[in-house]
Amino acid sequence: MNYKQTGTMLMLCHFVPNLTIGAPVVQCLKKHVKGFLDCHCMVSEPQKWVKDFGKAGANQMTFHYETVENHEELCQLIRDNGMKVGMAIKPKTQIDDKIKKLCLNNLLDLILVMTVEPGFGGQKFMEDMMPKVKQLRQLCPNLNIQVDGGITCDNIHIVAQAGANVIVSGSGVYGHKDPKLAIQFMREEVKKCI
């Protein structure tokens, strides 16, 4: 599992009360950023956005499990539009049989365990989400497992030991006195546990 992601784009509206950026910005960034662009779509009806993000050059589209009825169909639509498939789960969502099936049938390239309520940065890390990460790691040892929300240099070891190999840290990096050092430290902590 060598997964290096240098850019994460957020598209927020309807499902959460905040709006950031959409496909036109992804298209502009793709011209200037060589990194992997994961579009984390916190939207109702994410299927409406797939073609736009695919055309814009997104490498991966991550949708929220709670916003979709036919997960398999959406996964296929995302792949058909040239992107990898990510799926996020909110803190209150349990790992049910549907989620297990999606993981075990290799329909996902990544599963994101939210460690805050999605929508706004700067929230406190929910350590009680780590059993989900452990459960997913045991279920699918080769699946990329991402965590997002409240991740800092002080708690990265907890996340890494639980089995997450992809980390999203906004405030934990940009609120650090040396963002470059924070990124390096977090990468090293994850590498120790992979």
From TrEMBL:
GO biological process: carbohydrate derivative metabolic process; carbohydrate metabolic process; generation of precursor metabolites and energy; nicotinamide nucleotide metabolic process; purine nucleotide metabolic process
InterPro entries in UniProt: Aldolase_TIM, Ribul_P_3_epim-like, RibuloseP-bd_barrel
Keywords, ordered alphabetically: Carbohydrate metabolism, Iron, Isomerase, Manganese, Metal-binding, Signal, Zinc
GO molecular-function term, one example from the UniProt record: D-ribulose-phosphate 3-epimerase activity
Cofactor(s) required for function per UniProt: Mn(2+); Zn(2+); Fe(2+)
Top-level class of the enzyme under EC nomenclature: isomerase
Domain of life: Eukaryota
Catalyzed reactions per annotation: D-ribulose 5-phosphate = D-xylulose 5-phosphate
Signal peptide start-end: 1-22
Role description: Catalyzes the reversible epimerization of D-ribulose 5-phosphate to D-xylulose 5-phosphate.
Membrane-crossing residue ranges in chain numbering: none
Coiled coil: none
PANTHER family linked: RIBULOSE-5-PHOSPHATE-3-EPIMERASE
Subunit structure: Homodimer.
EC number per UniProt: 5.1.3.1
PROSITE patterns named among the record's database cross-references: RIBUL_P_3_EPIMER_2 (PS01086)
Protein name: ribulose-phosphate 3-epimerase
Sequence similarity: Belongs to the ribulose-phosphate 3-epimerase family.
One Pfam family named in its UniProt record: Ribul_P_3_epim
